[in-house]
Write a structure and sequence with these properties.
It is found in: Cell inner membrane; Cell membrane. By secondary structure, the chain is an all-alpha fold.
Length: 365
Amino acid sequence: MGAYILRRLLLIIPTLFGIMVINFTLTQFVPGGPIEQIIARIDGEGDVFGAISGGAGEFANDTARSSAQGSSEYAGARGLPPEFIEELEREFGFDKPPVERFFTMIWNYMRLDFGESYFRSIGVFELVAEKLPVSITLGLWSTLIAYIVSIPLGIRKAVNDGSTFDTWTSGLIIVAYAIPGFLFAILLLVLFAGGTYWQIFPLRGLTSDNFEDLSLIGKVLDYFWHIALPVFASTIASFATLTLLTKNSFLDEIKKQYVITARAKGVSERRVLYGHVFRNAMLIVIAGFPGLFISVFFGGSLIIETIFSLDGLGRLGFEAAVARDYPVIFGTLFVFGLVGLVIGILSDLMYVFVDPRIDFEKREA
C-alpha cells in the first residue's frame, strides 16, 4: 500500500501541472486583461491606483494627472501615452512571452512563491491562507453532517423499503433536492436572519465582533451560531443524494445470498446490517466522499459565501476572475486542485479501512 500511495502522491505533480497549463492557456484568450482593467479604471474612476503596488501604480497616477491638466476630459478619452502602457506591461510581466511567463510562474510555485495580487498590497499566499479556513469550514461540516444524517436514514429506508416511512421521506428528500442551494439560503436568511420574520442567527461572518473577549465555551457556541445557516444551506442537496445512494446500496446487498444465509443461521438483524452488509454497502458511499466534498468546496462555496457574506476562497476566486487578478486566480486554482487530488487519495485509504480485502497494488499489477 505504501508504494501505491507514493505513486499517487507523485502523480499530483503532473496533474497540477496540467491544470495550470490549461488555465494559463485559457486566460491568454480571455479579453479584458489586467492592463485593460487599469485603463478602464482610469477612464471611469481617475486616481484609483492606491491599491496597486510598485512603480506602475505611481507611474499611472502621475501620467493620469499630467494628461488631465488643462482639460476636464478623462485621460483615457484622449488616449494614454505609450510609455505608460509599456510601464504597466513591465510591472505585470506582460512584456515577456507567454511561455516564459508560465514557466517563471511554475518555478516560483515550486518554491512556494505565489506572487502578489495585482490590485491588493498583499501576497497571494497570505490571501489564500486567510480565506481558506472559511471554505474548508463549510466543506467539512457540510460533508460530515450529510454523512451523519444520510447513512442512518438511508439504512432505515432500505430496511423499510416500500413502507409509509420510506414513501414520505423520499418525498421530502426529492423536494429538498429540487430546491436550488442559493434559493434555500435566501429562504433561511428571510426566515431566521432578520429578513422578515425572526432574528435568530447572525447575518454575516464566522464570528462576532467581541469574539476575542469570549470564554472558550462562548467562542465555540459563537462559532456554531454563525455557521449554522451556511452549513445547513450547503448540506441540503448533498444530503438528499447521499441518502438515496445509501438506500440503494443497502438494498442491493440485502438481497444477496450471504445475507439470507446469515439470517437463516439466526444472526440478529442488527449484526446482519452492521456486521455484514455495512462494509460492502458503504464502499460506493465512501467512493462518493471526494465528489461530495469537492462539490461543496468548489461549487457551493461561492454561492453560500456570497449570500452569507463570508470572506472565503470561493468568493476570493470569483472577485479575482472579475478583476482579472491573475496571480490570485492561479493561486486559488492551484489550491482547489491540490485539495481535490489529496481528497482522492484519502478516499482510497478509506476504501482499505472499510474493507481490508481491497489491495490497490495487486489491482494495478
